[in-house]
């Protein structure tokens, strides 16, 4: 079984047409997020893992508060990679005990604030455990503090999103297992372990191997210190998704079943299991539409200039071989563009030469006023928005069954001036 279900261009185009019919701001570019689809994917996670597991959706994949609120309302927790993301979690209505705070650079003040708020916290290294010990009240932190372990299973096919090679900046290397065992003996408030292998480029076997190695260490600690020790296991996220029709990533259900077979102690009673899926939840829920502003033709071919580029698809612009997106040509009425195909370059609106989303892509002959639909933009796109050239973020609209609502208003020039100004937006 493979997990290739994706939103179809026809349904995305219908949503765009309906938003425009309602007078919503869709020009010159607009972003969409399908909230119903997101809820369904969160539901699939809950059904695949044991009851009582905490499924903390990674905020860094998509930090929009209204998106996070919808996730929380259907039972998800949230995973925060910074104290600012902890605040986003609280703004979205997430109970502190269902917020997981991971960061490799927590300051003493941030640790103190996390402990005060009562969120779950994963320490990244042994020195951080010392900082926590100086601040924590053990009776108030029961079951809430873990330690990240680097399972050292090697890099994946996308090196920049691999975090489990031998020189990763994240976690305590598994080769220092003796120091980890000593930490559990020293700190009675330390409740569990955390592992995350990487994102998108990781094969299922690599993900499971990393989890298996860290789970084996947790079981050793439990045998040495009693069944009540190391009761929490956070297995991170990283499950890849389909960006092409030919991609065949593992289905969530198959991944969970493989974990149950190969790492069965994760599913035993007495273990608090935590997941941190982000891309798998969000990527296929989002899409974007940009108007074609100009089409330039010369001896090298033709280039269509869009209103979304490296500001929105930063990874695509800098590493196109690693980060694919499908682009669909629409006419001004948002119907499928017809006509013979020929090579076209899609350029973004920024003033630097690398702002190119696709080169020599086979598309119908585009004209100013046509539209380009970009698929699978729900994760690691808006959250990585670049302020280069200070262009405003487009409106973000939420699709929820037959309803469409504004999740975030379009930024106007005065909003960008406020962003770059001192104080509270005062020039």
UniProtKB/TrEMBL annotation:
Residues that bear N6-(pyridoxal phosphate)lysine: 60
Transmembrane segments: none
Cofactor(s), by name: pyridoxal 5'-phosphate
GO MF annotations, alphabetized: diaminopimelate decarboxylase activity
Active site, UniProt feature: 351
Origin superkingdom: Bacteria
Family annotation (InterPro entries): Ala_racemase/Decarboxylase_C, De-COase2_N, Orn/DAP/Arg_de-COase, Orn_de-COase, PLP-binding_barrel
Keyword RNA-binding: no
Protein's recorded name: Orn/DAP/Arg decarboxylase 2 N-terminal domain-containing protein
Species the sequence originates in: Sorangium cellulosum So0157-2
């Amino acid at each position: 079984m493979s997990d290739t279900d994706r939103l179809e261009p026809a349904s995305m185009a219908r949503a765009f047409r309906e938003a425009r019919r309602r007078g919503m701001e869709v020009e010159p570019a607009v972003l969409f997020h399908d909230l119903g689809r997101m809820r369904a994917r969160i539901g699939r996670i809950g059904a695949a893992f044991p009851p009582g597991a905490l499924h903390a959706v990674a905020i860094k994949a998509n930090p929009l508060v209204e998106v996070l609120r919808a996730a929380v309302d259907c039972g998800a927790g949230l995973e925060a990679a910074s104290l600012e993301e902890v605040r986003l979690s609280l703004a979205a209505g997430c109970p502190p005990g269902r917020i997981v705070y991971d960061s490799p650079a927590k300051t003493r003040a941030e640790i103190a604030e996390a402990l005060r708020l009562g969120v779950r916290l994963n320490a990244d290294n042994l020195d951080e455990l010392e900082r926590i010990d100086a601040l924590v009240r053990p009776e108030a932190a029961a079951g809430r503090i873990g330690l990240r372990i680097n399972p050292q299973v090697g890099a994946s096919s996308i090196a920049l999103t691999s975090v489990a090679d031998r020189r990763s900046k994240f976690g305590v290397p598994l080769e220092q297992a003796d120091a980890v065992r000593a930490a559990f003996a020293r700190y009675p408030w330390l409740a569990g372990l955390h592992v995350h292998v990487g994102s998108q480029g990781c094969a299922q076997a690599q993900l499971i191997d990393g989890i298996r190695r860290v789970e084996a260490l947790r079981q050793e600690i439990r045998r040495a210190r009693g069944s009540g020790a190391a009761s929490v296991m956070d297995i991170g996220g990283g499950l890849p998704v389909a960006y092409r029709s030919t991609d065949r990533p593992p289905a969530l259900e198959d991944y969970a079943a493989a974990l149950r077979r190969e790492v069965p102690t994760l599913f035993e009673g007495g273990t608090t299991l935590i997941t941190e899926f982000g891309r798998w939840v969000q990527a296929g829920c989002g899409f974007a539409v940009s108007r074609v502003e100009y089409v330039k033709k010369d001896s090298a071919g033709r280039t269509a200039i869009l209103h979304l580029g490296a500001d929105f698809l930063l990874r695509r612009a800098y590493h196109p071989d690693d980060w694919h997106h499908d682009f669909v040509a629409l006419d001004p009425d948002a119907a499928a563009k017809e006509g013979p195909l020929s090579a076209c370059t899609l350029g973004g609106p920024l003033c630097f030469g690398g702002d190119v989303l696709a080169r020599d892509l086979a598309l119908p002959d585009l004209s100013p006023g046509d539209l380009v639909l970009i698929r699978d933009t729900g994760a690691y796109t808006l959250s990585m928005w670049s302020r280069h050239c200070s262009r405003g973020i487009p409106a973000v609209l939420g699709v929820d069954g037959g309803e469409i609502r504004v999740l975030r208003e379009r930024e106007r020039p005065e909003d960008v001036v406020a962003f770059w100004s001192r104080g509270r937006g005062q020039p």
